[in-house]
Every structure is written in structure tokens, then in C-alpha cells.
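seq as requested:
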Amino acid sequence: MLNRERLQDTFIEMIKIYSPSKQEKEMCDYILNWLSKRNIQATIDDAGSNYGGNGGNIVAYIPGTTSGMPICFCAHLDQIEPCENVKPVIDGSIIKTDGTTTLGGDDKGGVAAILEAVEDILESDTPHRDIYLLFTVTEELGMLGVKNMDMSKLPCKDLIVLDSAGDTGTIAYAAPAKEHIEITFNGKKAHAGIEPENGINAIVVASKAISKMHIGRIDEETTSNIGEICGGGATNVVTDKVKFIAEIRSHSMDKLQKEVEHMENCCKEATDSMKATYIMEHSITYPTLHLDIESDICKILIDAIKEEGIEPELLKIGGGSDANILCGHGYRSGIISIGMKDVHTVDESLDIDELCKATRIIRRIMEG
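C-alpha cells:
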């Protein structure tokens, strides 16, 4: 039987390990030590060295003792700041913090569930399918860990990612692609009191461009947002340079491309009208995620959730995760909820009862 107390203790032990993005080495050591004690074969790469981090992606393999397709279970090891000196507060089934840090349910709750399910399989000597485990690093900073992973290290193409908020039973089967955009407007500097007519105010140029852009919810598949704008200084100087950083997300690559083109057209029209110039740099942060709901891995997930007495809910979500990157490499990934709420804030909490349900679900799937 799964051990609720052990699951909770493991989770609390891990959230006390300081592991913000790019600084996951101690968490990596914890996982490798846990696997080694149970004679589980594991490798770690040097992904972090490619972007200034000190951790690496861990892939572990537990050979199956029965037939059944191999399945990989995935969670990430990094945590959103502030996450140093986490002080957990337990109120019934809810675990939260004292309000000074994030909790780490995202995604150490997922890690704890995977470890507990494996522990139970091993100690009960239960027949099981081929099990792969993937613990990634720096997921919270644009999935840098898995972006720098050697995919040949993970031959299993079907994954269950434990990294979604809300009560147990949801399956995120689709997530949007994201385009990162940086645009710089160049005007002309002049004295604002003596000769403003000789200047070209880059703030005004940027404002004209932004006023024509589609910002916010564009349609049911597409969103756009400007997150930062900077430039200018003294009020007696006509500002000659302004930069803003934006993103566009969409479940449709065609729509994504059209919105990028629209944003650039707005910049072109504004700069042409004021005889200014602009530089636009943009790139795909991650591709779309789409899991065929008729695929074997999705059906396995649905059946396991139903066997737990829960009605599955298939969702399209608006955020990105490691699953997006893996999907781009031909992996089939479904993301399941584990009972975390208010993630990325100091109000974050985890419902240990919901985490237990998620653990039982993946335990069923491991057994096959």
C-alpha cells in the first residue's frame, strides 16, 4: 500500500532543499542518492553547463517484469524564487508556507509522487511494465534543461508529466506555442524645450505601434502580452530609444505567425509615419503540445483516473512546460494535476490528499 505519511515526509524533505532554476545541484544529488539506494540505473547529463546552471537532467530506468508498453514519468526539480529556507505549515491536508517563500508543490509534489509510487512497486515486489523516470532542471526559465537534453538518453516515447495545478483528474492534452519578441524603436534625440521639432520621440513611436496591436485574449487559442517597456530619461530630452519585450501564444502555429506579422506591421506603420526605425527580434520559446486523445498513453491515463473513482477532465491549457519541448521531439506527453494551487506565489499550497490520488493513479499505470 502507498504510504501517505512517507509521501508527505518526502515532499517536505525536498522543499527544504534550496533549488531555484540554474541551482538544482543539491536536488539532483538527492534524487541520484535516492535512486542509488534502490539500485535503480540512472544517468545525469551536463545540461546546466550550457546556460550557466549547475544541475543536469536525470534519466532512470527500471526494467519491466511484465508486458506492456514502456512509460516515462516526468517532473522538474527547480522551484520559483523566493524559495530559500522554506517553512512548511500543515493545516489538515493542506501544506503551505509561512508566507515568505513559495512552497515548491510546483513541482516537488510531482517528484514526491513519482518516488512514492516507485517505492511501493519495489517494496511490494509488484510486477510492472518498463518504467522510465525523467527529472528535469530549469523548467521554470523557458525549459532550458530539457532544451539542452540529449534525447537519445530517453528511448521511451510516451510520458506522463506531473506538473499541473488543480484537483486530481485533469489531463492537459494541448498547450500553446510561445513566441518571444523584443522590439527596439530608434528615434532622434533633441532638446525638449529648445528644439523638440528636431527630435523624434521613440516613446511616441512605440505608443503608436502598441495602440494598433492585438494585446490580451485574441481568440480562444491565442493570447498576446507586453511584459516590459524601458527607455528614456530626463524630461528635457526627446527620447531617442525605447525597447519592449512581449510574447504571443497560440495553439495554432498559423495564428501565431499571423500575430507576429501583425505586430511587426504595426511597428512598420508607426516608424514610417514618424521617420523612425525599429529592430524586431523574435524566436519560438517552445512549440505547441498536442496529445491525440485516441493515443494509447491518453487512454491509459483516462482508464487509471476512472479506476480511482474520478471522472477525467481533458483540458487545453494556456501555459507551457517540458511537455511542449518533448512533443517537438516526437514524444507523446500528457500533463496531470497533482493538487497544487496558487503556484509561483508565496500563497502556494498543496493538498496532500489530492497528491495521494495522483500517486495512486501513476502507481496503477506503473503496474500496468
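DSSP finds nine helices and 17 strands in the chain.
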